[in-house]
Amino acid sequence: MIQKDMERIDDAGVVRQGEGLDAARIEAFLKDTVTDLPKGLILRQFPGGNSNLTYLLRFGDRDLILRRPPFGRKAKGSHDMGREYRVLRALYPVFPYCPRPLAYTEDESVIGCPFFVMERVRGLVIRRGLPPGLALTPAQGRKLCENLAELQAALHAIDYKAVGLEGFGRPEGYVKRQVEGWIERFRQARTPDAPDCEEVMGWIAANKPADSGRASVIHNDFKLDNVVVDEQDPTRIVAVLDWEMATIGDPLMDFGNILAYRVERDDPPEMDFIRFMPPEIEFSLTRKELADVYAAKARRPLEDMTYFYCFGLFRLAAIEQQIYYRYYHGQSREERFAGMIDKVRVLEKTALRAIAAA
Q: What is the pLDDT of residue 13?
């Protein structure tokens, strides 16, 4: 249960140094695009998130969310605000777990970059630890994980052509492009203190499967801390956030990503360093059990998921390395990014163990 007065884990706070926005320009822009906004914008920033930046826009009793790219060097093709806004507009009528998009602009005179604004979804975001006042039984932890896998399967079942997303991605050759693209991104973002990951990259390049032939909308970062859960029933998911990497592609690649975020009880102790969920949830389902839940909902048998799991681990290492690159070169002052290089090392070792076992 949750205490009524509990502190939300994702309450917005003071805007971080070097990441400020021009509130007056934002308010002027929104007055022409969003109706019935009272005067007087209060601007805050959310502490979570390692990629695109998220801000709270408070107009009286109405809360909106602004999403913008990070400051500093960005990988080519990443942080496309227009893509994230487009997928939300297409999915919102048929997938009610999307926040309602409200406005988008590429006019950099407003805050210096493209950005979009959406309605805020109230609820809890669970990260590495449970929020104060929240306790989950083992059965509740299991149910939440099952709901997460089933919701991902439901997303993959949407007819992307029917909702106007044909051409949003190129499903043919998706696996090959993903493998080659993430290898290139890792090499471009590698710093002198990073592992080379060459053995892992060589294995995923040499063993990549053909496309499954069942292209779908894929989120590309579907995980627990990218969903919002109901405050009164934390097993119930009410929204999915962070659609910046969504595209049309192979759903098994998307599901492999969610496997990469799981740590099991029997995994080496060092893997606790890359744990993204509280133990009450992390240990509720094994990777195999999670795959079984997804397969049942998707109505498709899953063959050996080792390849998709290993690719997910490497892709996560590349994401962490890209963020660490900005910190290493002084483009971000966020001290929490300093430890990401250690996560990259652990992810490489984890992928090598999975490859050896395969």
A: 82
